């Protein structure tokens, strides 16, 4: 397993990592590019194309095959966050605070977020929720922790929402999510994810708030976009409506594994170029 030199190594260590204020200043400008990442090698590959890498709690489904994000622990997020920071040099790394690690109140959230920043080297945390989370966002931001908010479909609330359907279609839902977005913006979030909402709602929020909005199933008129990397690479058979597959990696892996298996069964691998033959040493070498 040979390591490809990181962008930082290639540049002689001159790459500066993007910061939360740098992302905040992109409001209304060039769209902000974000993808999720969970491992060091994937982070290395994505780093030069992205502005932010999100270590999402979607690690639950993507890496661990879990049915929802609820079982993810803070220790899991920290392990994956540290790997993504090691693999990247340029992108701002944002780590999700997992379910149960911040909802009790600002102080619990501070303890969890401080561990994330100290133990991973990431530059920001993300948490789900709107009006109710605004005091926590204000508390963290005032104490040196940049917070990305997440409104609309908030997967950690799957049990109260009753599923993963798109949101904002009902009048009360539309104004509730709009109020959430305004509240987290006022509280000091440096950016916010808007997930799976009516396009008109995403556009209204983007116009109303000061921080950049990052859409997923929202609108191309948000200030940036995010997708789960394995969805975008075509690793899964089924995807949400908002996913576009930019590659079909699942079928490529299937084809490579099929060829490998056939080659092994035919005893055609390894061949002499992949095996070690005894070298005859000359007298001078002996
Ligand atoms: O966990 C995650 O991957 C996310 C994105 C869907 C925004 O929160």
Element order, helices and strands? HHEHEHHEHEHEHHEHEEHH
**How much strand?**
5-15%
Largest sheet: 8 strands, parallel, barrel
Within the largest sheet, what's the order of strands?
Answer: 1-2-3-4-5-6-7-8
Question: Can you identify the CATH superfamily?
Answer: Phosphoenolpyruvate-binding domains
| Global Rg | 22 Å
| Unreliable spans | none
The secondary-structure class comes to alpha/beta
Summarize the structure in words.
The protein has one domain: Phosphoenolpyruvate-binding domains (TIM Barrel), CATH 3.20.20.60. Strand 6 (191-195), helix 10 and strand 7 form a beta-alpha-beta unit. The model has no long low-confidence stretch (mean pLDDT 95). It has helices at residues 7-10, 20-24, 40-47, 59-62, 74-87, 106-120, 134-142, 158-161, 171-187, 199-208, 229-232, 249-265; strands at residues 32-36, 52-55, 92-96, 124-128, 147-152, 191-195, 213-216, 224-227. It is an alpha/beta fold and 286 residues long. An eight-stranded parallel barrel has the order 1-2-3-4-5-6-7-8, surrounded by six helices. Helix 6 (106-120) packs across helix 7 (134-142). Bound molecules: 3-methyl-2-oxobutanoic acid. 3-methyl-2-oxobutanoic acid (KIV) is lined by residues 36, 54, 56-58, 96, 150, 193, 195, 216, 226, 228.
């Amino acid at each position: 397993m040979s390591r490809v030199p990181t962008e930082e190594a290639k540049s002689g260590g001159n790459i500066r990592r993007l910061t939360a204020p740098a992302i905040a200043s992109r409001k209304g400008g060039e769209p902000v590019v974000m993808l999720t990442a969970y491992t060091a090698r994937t982070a290395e590959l994505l780093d030069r194309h992205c502005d932010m890498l999100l270590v999402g709690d979607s690690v639950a489904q993507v890496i661990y095959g879990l049915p929802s994000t609820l079982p993810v622990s803070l220790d899991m997020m920290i392990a994956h966050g540290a790997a993504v920071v090691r693999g990247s040099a340029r992108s701002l790394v944002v780590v999700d605070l997992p379910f149960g690690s911040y909802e009790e109140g600002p102080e619990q959230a501070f303890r969890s977020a401080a561990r994330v920043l100290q133990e991973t080297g990431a530059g920001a945390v993300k948490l789900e929720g709107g009006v109710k989370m605004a005091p926590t966002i204000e508390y963290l931001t005032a104490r040196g922790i940049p917070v990305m908010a997440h409104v609309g479909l908030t997967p950690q609330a799957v049990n109260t929402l009753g599923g993963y359907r798109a949101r904002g279609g009902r009048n009360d839902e539309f104004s509730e999510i709009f109020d959430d977005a305004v509240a987290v913006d006022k509280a000091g979030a440096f950016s916010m994810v808007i997930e799976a909402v009516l396009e008109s709602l995403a556009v209204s929020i983007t116009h109303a708030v000061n921080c950049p909005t990052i859409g997923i199933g929202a609108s191309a008129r948000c200030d940036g976009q995010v997708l789960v990397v394995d969805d975008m690479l075509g690793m899964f058979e089924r995807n949400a409506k908002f996913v576009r597959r930019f590659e079909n990696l699942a079928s490529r892996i299937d084809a490579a594994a099929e060829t490998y298996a056939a080659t092994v069964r035919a005893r055609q691998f390894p061949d002499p170029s992949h095996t070690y033959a005894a070298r005859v040493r000359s007298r001078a070498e002996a």
